[in-house]
Amino acid sequence: MPALPPTPRRAATLEDVAAAAGVSRATASRVLNGVPTVRASAVDAVRRAAADLGYRPNPAARSLARGRHDSIALVLTERDLAELPHSFFAEPLRGATAAVTRRSLQMVLLLAGPDEAALRRYLDGSHVDGALVIVEAHSTNLPRLLRSSAVPVVYLGRPVEDPDSHSYVDVDNYGGARLATAELVQAGRRVIGTIAGPQDMGVAVDRLAGWRDVLAEHGLPAPTPVYGNFTADGGANAMARLLATRPDLDGVFVASDLMAMGALRVLAASGRRVPEDVAVIGYDDSILARTATPPMTSVRQPLEEMGELMVDVLLQLIADPAAGPVRRILPAQLARRESV
Amino acid sequence: MPALPPTPRRAATLEDVAAAAGVSRATASRVLNGVPTVRASAVDAVRRAAADLGYRPNPAARSLARGRHDSIALVLTERDLAELPHSFFAEPLRGATAAVTRRSLQMVLLLAGPDEAALRRYLDGSHVDGALVIVEAHSTNLPRLLRSSAVPVVYLGRPVEDPDSHSYVDVDNYGGARLATAELVQAGRRVIGTIAGPQDMGVAVDRLAGWRDVLAEHGLPAPTPVYGNFTADGGANAMARLLATRPDLDGVFVASDLMAMGALRVLAASGRRVPEDVAVIGYDDSILARTATPPMTSVRQPLEEMGELMVDVLLQLIADPAAGPVRRILPAQLARRESV
DNA sequence: GCTTTTCGAGAGAGCGCTCTCTGGAGCGTC
DNA sequence: GACGCTCCAGAGAGCGCTCTCTCGAAAAGC
Question: Does the distance separating the beta carbons of B54 and A291 come in below 8 Å?
C-alpha cells in the first residue's frame, strides 16, 4: 500500500479564510478590501485567519472580477537598452518602480522590438492599466502608434511629433544648458564652444538655444556650433572640428556625457589640459562623468524623480482618462566636479 | 431624450468569436490553442472571426482557469540598479526579455527593496511561474530567503552560500582572468600586477586565481595583489598602493572596468602612459572600457546570452521542478582595444 | 407596541477562459 | 443490419474573486 500522498499544499483561497473565520466569503472579501461596514469581531477573525493560513489573494481572479489589473507596462526599446548611457533608463526605472511598489501595483516589462505594432496590440489586449514609455524620443514612432490606444500612456521626454496630444514628463533642457554655460562664463572662460546634438531632436535644439542665449546675454561671441550624434566617436569628431576652427577655445559645453568622453580624448591628444586649458561640461551626469579623467562637471536631470512623477501622472490618467494630456517639466541641476 | 450612449466598445470575448464563427466556445478555444482535432472549416471560421473582432484572449481569465501565469519575475535590487555598471544588468535583461518575448510570456519587474521578505511573499503569492534574480551576489541574502519558495528561481552568477542548492547561470571567471593575463604576457609584459576584488566574493577569488596561475605557468613572479571594492575610488587607491610597491610595473589586470577607471586616473597622474609604460586590462567590457582614454581592453562576459540561458533554465525548472538545481557556466572572451 | 430606518452580512451571479465529460455522426466489421 | 470505433464538438463545471441584491435583526421613531 503506497504511503499517503503529502497534503497537496494548495494555496489558501478566500473561501478557506472565510470558513476559518466563520464568516461568508463576501465578508472576508470586505475585510481584506477595507470595507468599513463590518463588525469588529469579524474583522479580527478574518485578519487572523488570513495570517494563519498565509493567505494571498489570487491576482488573476481579482483582475478578472474587477476588470482592472493593478499593473502597468514599462516600455523600453532594445536599442536604447543597448546604447543609452546607464542612467538614462536605470534612474527613471528606479523612480517608477519605487512609486509603483509603494502603491502595491506591479510593473510589467515590455521590450519594444522591431515590430512596434505588436506593442500596440499588447496594450490593447487588456493586460495592463496603462503604460510608461522610456525610449529615446527620436528613435521611434511609438507615440504615433500608441495614440488612441486602449490605455493611457505617459512618455519620458517630450515626443517630437505633435507633443501637445501626448502626456509626458520632461526636464528643462534649455534651462540645463543655461546653467552649464553660465558656469563656464562665471569661471572666466571667454571662448566657449558647444558640441550640440542632432537638430532633429527637440532636446538638442533646446540645449543649443540655452548655450547661445547665455553667451548673448553676456556679450560673448558664439563660436560656430559643431554637431555630434550623441556617440563618443561623434563627440571626438566634433571636438576636432571645433579645435580646428577655434584653437583658442577655453571652454566647451557638450550636449551629452557620451559625446564629452570623445571630446576629452581629443583634447588630451591635442595636448590640452582639462580644466587648465579648456573647461568641459557634459550633460546627463552619468557614470561616465563621474569616472572620467578628470571627473567631469555635468548637467544633472532629476531622472529618478521623473520616473516617480510619470507614475503619478499615469495613475491620474487611469483614474480619469478624460483628464487630457498632462505635461510636467522639471528643472535641471548642475553637478560640479573638476573639469571646470 | 438623451442620445443613445456610444457602443460600449467592450473587448471581444471568446464567446463573441465563437458566436461569429458559428461554433461553441469550447471549439473556439481549441482552435486558438492549436488543438488539432478540429475540422478545417471550423478552424478557418474561428481564425477569421478572431481577426475580424480583434480578439485578444484575456490573460487574467486564462491564468485563472489554467492555474499558470505565463509570466516570470525579474528581480533586481535598487542598490544594484543605482550602482552597477551599465552592462551588468542591461545585457542580461535584454537577453532574458528577448527570450521571454519569443515564447510570448511576460516579464514582471520586481525591485527588491530593503524588505526582502516581501519579495518572498510575493513569489509565494502565485503571481508568476518563476523568477530570475539579477543582483550582485554578495549584497543580498535573497538566495537564503528564496530557498524553497513556491516557484523556481534562477540566479545570475553563483550564489555565495551553498551554491549547490541553487540554480544559476554563471560565466567562467577563472578562465576570463587567464585570458587577460595571458594577453599581457603575450604582449611582452613582465611585471604584471592585479587589482583584485573583495575576497569574500566568489567572482573576485576566481579572477585572482586565474591571474596567479597564468603567471606561475610562465615562470613570472607575481607581485603582491592589491584589493579594491569594485568602485572607481577603490581602484584608484589600489593602483596607488600597487605603484608604491612595484614602481617597475608594466602591466595590470584589474578585476572590473569601474576599478580600472580609477586605476587609469592614477596612472595618468603618475605620468605613466597607457599602454606604452603600463598595459591595462579591465573586466566586464562595459561602456566604461569602450569610452576610456585610451579605449581599454577588457574581458567580456556573454551577459546577453546568459540572460537567455537563464530563461531556458527557468522554463525547464517550471516544467519539471524536480529537475533539481541546474548549473550552467559560459566561457568569457577578450575584447581587444588599445590599452595593451 | 408597531412601523420605519439603519446596519451588517449572506447568497449568488458573474468576470472570460480551460478542460473534462458526454454524445452524435460516420465508418468499418462480422 | 446491429455493434463497436474513431472523430469532432457541445455542455457545463469550475478557477478565485468582487459586488450587487437581499434580508434579518437591532435601533429609532411615532
Answer: no
- pLDDT (tens digit per residue) in A108-119: 888 887 777 778
Selected residue with higher pLDDT from B127 and B241: B241
Query: HEC string of A248-313?
Result: CCCEEEECCHHHHHHHHHHHHHCCCCCCCCCEEEEECCCHHHHHCCCCCEEEECCHHHHHHHHHHH
| Helices and strands: H and E segment counts in chain B | 14, 12
Q: Please count the other Cβ atoms lying within 10 Å of the Cβ belonging to residue A53.
A: 16
Asked if residue A48 has pLDDT above 70, the reply is: yes
Average pLDDT of the residues in A145-168: 89
CB A155 within 8 A of CB A168: yes
For the record, the C-alpha cell of B179 comes out as 585570458
Burial of B149 (0-12, 13-18, 19+ CB in 10 A): middle
Whether residue B60 and residue A69 make contact (CB cut-off 8 A), yes or no, is yes
CA distance B24 to A107: 35
Residue B196: other Cβ atoms inside 10 A: 25
Please give the residue that has the higher pLDDT: either B116 or A331. A331
Mean pLDDT of A43-55: 93
Is the Cβ–Cβ distance between B93 and B50 less than 8 Å?
no
pLDDT (average), residues B232-240: 95
- Whether B282 contacts B298, CB under 8 Å: yes
Cα-based angle A78, A260, B296 (whole degrees, multiple of 5): 75
Q: Which domains does chain A carry?
A: 14-57 (1.10.260.40), 71-171+304-331 (3.40.50.2300), 173-300 (3.40.50.2300)
Do strands B333-335 and B297-300 pair parallel, antiparallel, or not at all (unpaired)? antiparallel
Nearest CA of chain A to the CA of B131: how many Å?
Answer: 13
A94/B107 CB distance under 8 A: no
pLDDT band at A98 (very low <50, low <70, confident <90, very high): confident
What lies within 8 Å, CB to CB, of A60 at 6+ separation is B59, B60, B61, B63, B64, B69
Q: Are A334 and A297 in contact (CB under 8 A)?
A: yes
Q: Find the closest chain B residue to A115 by CA distance.
A: B101
Task: Name residues 51-80 of chain A within 8 A of B (Cβ).
Answer: 54, 56-61, 63-64, 69, 71, 74, 78
Residues of B (234-293) whose Cβ lies below 8 Å from A: 258, 261-262, 264-265, 268, 287-288, 290-291, 293
Q: How far is CA B115 from CA A144, B92, B112, B146, B290, in A?
A: 40, 24, 7, 13, 36
Measured CA distances, B219 to B205, B222, B253 (Å): 21, 9, 17
pLDDT in tens, A245-284: 999 999 999 999 999 999 999 999 999 999 999 999 999 9
User: Which of these, A175, A162, A167, A212, lies nearest to A192 by C-alpha position?
Assistant: A212
**How far is it, in rounded angstroms, from Cα B336 to Cα B338?**
7
Instruction: Read off the pLDDT of residues A300-309 as tens digits, 9 standing for 90 and up.
Output: 999 999 999 9
How many C-beta atoms lie closer than 10 Å to residue A10's C-beta? 7
CB atoms within 10 A of CB A29: 18
Q: What is the pLDDT of residues B21-50, one digit of tens each?
A: 999 999 999 999 998 889 999 999 999 999
CB contact under 8 A, A94 and B109: no
DSSP 3-state percent helix, strand, coil across chain A (nearest 5) = 50, 15, 35
- Which helix (DSSP H) or strand (DSSP E) does residue B142 occupy? helix B142-146
Q: What's the sign of the alpha-carbon dihedral A161, A163, A164, A168?
A: positive
Separation of alpha carbons A219 and A196, rounded Å: 21
